[in-house]
Design goal:
444 residues, alpha+beta, Heat Shock Protein 90, five-stranded mixed sheet, four-stranded antiparallel sheet, 54% helix
Length: 444
C-alpha cells in the first residue's frame, strides 16, 4: 500500500507531485486525528470510567461494612442497586442476569449504560453509570479541541502548499519554457530564460543562471556549426573546381613540362585545401585546449610565410620586405598565426598588381601594408563580413578571407584594425597585447 502511494506521488509533473504530497499529508493527519479521537474514547470508557467505578464501589463497600443501612449512590450520572446474591428478584429485570464485572448493557429505554457489578458480604452491588453527560463533556473538552487543532493543521497545510507552489513556480515555468521550445528552429531569442531570473531563491536563481549559460553555449555550438558548414561548402567549391579542371587538362596534355606545371598547380591546390580544412576545424572547436601552444618568433614565421606566398603568387612587379626594430615573440598556437598571416599576405598579393607589400613589426604588433587597389569607406566597413569582396571582383581566389581572419583574432583576443584608400592601398594591423619584444642592438 505504501509502495503504491509512493509510485502515485512520483507520477506526473512537479506541480502534480506537490499536490499529491499535500493530499497524502492531509489524509495521514486526518486518519491520525480520527484514530486519536477513538483512542481517547476507548481510554475514557475502558480505563477512566472503570477506575472511577472501582473507586465508587470500594468506597460504598467500606461504608456498608460499618453501616448496612447506608444509602445507595444516586446521582445524576450514577445509580446504585443492592440485593442479596441468593435473591435478585428485587432488581430490575435487565440487571438480574448480569455477573460481576465491568461491561456495557442494553437498557429497555434504548440506552447502553456502563455497569460495574461486585459481590461483598453476601450482597451484590450494581453501579449503573450513564455517560451521556460525560460524553457531552468529552466532546466539548476533548473532540472539539481536537477538531479545532485539525482545522488549524489543515489551514497550515494549505498555507504550506501555497508557499511550496510559489517556490517551485519558477521551476515549473522553466520546464514549460524548455518543453515548448522548438529546437529545430533554433530561435534562441524565443528562449527568454532571463525573464525568470528575478527571484530571491538562491537555488532557483542558480538554476536560471546555469540554464542561461547552457543556452549561450548551445547557441555558440549552433553558430559554429552553421559557420563551419557555410565556410566549408563555399570555400571548398573553388579548389575542387580547380582540381577537376586540371585533371581534365592533364588528360589532354602531351608535353612533359606542361604536365609538370599542371601537377604543381594541383599540389598547391591540395595544400591550400589542407590549410583551409585545418582552419575550419580550429574555428569549429569550442576551446583551444587541444591546440599546441608554443613561443613563436613572428619575425621567423613571417619570413617563411612571405616566401611561401611569393612562390604561390609570383608577381615580378610587386616588391616585398619585412621591416622590424626587434624580435616579436608571442605565446600562441603557431598554426593559427600562420593561417592569419598567410591569408593577410595572400590577400595583399592578390590585390596588388604592382608596387609593394611590406610587413612592419613593432613592439605591439604586426602591420601588413600593400600599395594595391585599396577599398572605399563602404567596402572597408564590410571588409570583415563573410565572403564580402568589395568593388574589385577580378581576383576571386579561394583564400579564407578577412572574415575568418577576424574570427581567429577575436578567438584569441588579438585586436585587428584595417585602413584603406582607393588607389593608395590597404594596411591591416594585428596587435598582440601579451607579446614580448626584444629590440635589435644598434651598431656601434
Amino acid at each position: 500500500m505504501i509502495r503504491r502511494a509512493y509510485q502515485w506521488v512520483l507520477h506526473g509533473g512537479l506541480n502534480t507531485k506537490l499536490v499529491r504530497v499535500f493530499i497524502l499529508q492531509i489524509l495521514a493527519i486526518s486518519v491520525a486525528t480520527v484514530m486519536g479521537v477513538y483512542a481517547a474514547a476507548w481510554v475514557v470508557e475502558k480505563v477512566l470510567v472503570r477506575e472511577a467505578l472501582n473507586g465508587e464501589a470500594e468506597h460504598f463497600w467500606s461504608l456498608y461494612a460499618e453501616d448496612p443501612q447506608i444509602a445507595l449512590p444516586n446521582t445524576n450520572n450514577l445509580l446504585g442497586y443492592l440485593a442479596p446474591v441468593e435473591d435478585l428478584y428485587s432488581l430490575p429485570g435487565w440487571l438480574r442476569d448480569e455477573e460481576p464485572g465491568f461491561r456495557r448493557v442494553n437498557h429497555p429505554d434504548g440506552d447502553s449504560p456502563v455497569i460495574h457489578v461486585t459481590d461483598r458480604h453476601g450482597a451484590r452491588l450494581y453501579l449503573v453509570f450513564d455517560e451521556v453527560q460525560v460524553s457531552s463533556l468529552a466532546f466539548y473538552f476533548g473532540i472539539a479541541p481536537l477538531t479545532a487543532v485539525l482545522m488549524i493543521i489543515y489551514l497550515l497545510t494549505w498555507v504550506g502548499y501555497l508557499a511550496s507552489r510559489r517556490a517551485v513556480s519558477t521551476v515549473v515555468q522553466l520546464a514549460d519554457l524548455v518543453r515548448n521550445f522548438d529546437f529545430n528552429a533554433a530561435d534562441f531569442d524565443a528562449l527568454r530564460i532571463e525573464d525568470l531570473g528575478n527571484t530571491s531563491d538562491p537555488e532557483v536563481l542558480a538554476l536560471v543562471t546555469a540554464l542561461n549559460q547552457f543556452t549561450d553555449r548551445l547557441q555558440s555550438f549552433v553558430r559554429r556549426e552553421r559557420n563551419f558548414t557555410r565556410n566549408a561548402s563555399h570555400e571548398l567549391r573553388t579548389p575542387l573546381a580547380v582540381l577537376k579542371s586540371n585533371l581534365e587538362l592533364l588528360r589532354q596534355v602531351r608535353d612533359e613540362a606542361q604536365a609538370q606545371a599542371v601537377v604543381e598547380r594541383m599540389n598547391r591546390t591540395v595544400r591550400d585545401m589542407e590549410a583551409l580544412v585545418e582552419t575550419l576545424l580550429i574555428l569549429a572547436r569550442e576551446s583551444e585546449s587541444k591546440l599546441s601552444w608554443s613561443s613563436v618568433v613572428l619575425n621567423d614565421l613571417l619570413a617563411e610565410q612571405l616566401d611561401q606566398v611569393q612562390r604561390a603568387i609570383p608577381k615580378a612587379d610587386v616588391r616585398s620586405e619585412i621591416r622590424a626594430g626587434g624580435l616579436l615573440e608571442v605565446n600562441a598556437p603557431e598554426r593559427v598565426l600562420a593561417i592569419i598571416f598567410t591569408n593577410l599576405l595572400r590577400n595583399a598579393m592578390n590585390f596588388t598588381e604592382e608596387g609593394e607589400v611590406n610587413i612592419l613589426i613593432d613592439a605591439r604588433g604586426v602591420t601588413v601594408k600593400d600599395s594595391g587597389c585599396g577599398m572605399c569607406e563602404a567596402d572597408l566597413e564590410r571588409a570583415f563580413e563573410p565572403f564580402y569582396r568589395g568593388h574589385d571582383r577580378s581576383n576571386e581566389g579561394y583564400g579564407l578571407g578577412l572574415a575568418i581572419v577576424r574570427r581567429l583574432c577575436d578567438r584569441f583576443d588579438w585586436p585587428i584594425h584595417a585602413d584603406s584608400e582607393i588607389g593608395e592601398g590597404t594596411q591591416i594591423r594585428v596587435e598582440f597585447p601579451r607579446a614580448t619584444f626584444r629590440p635589435f642592438r644598434k651598431a656601434q
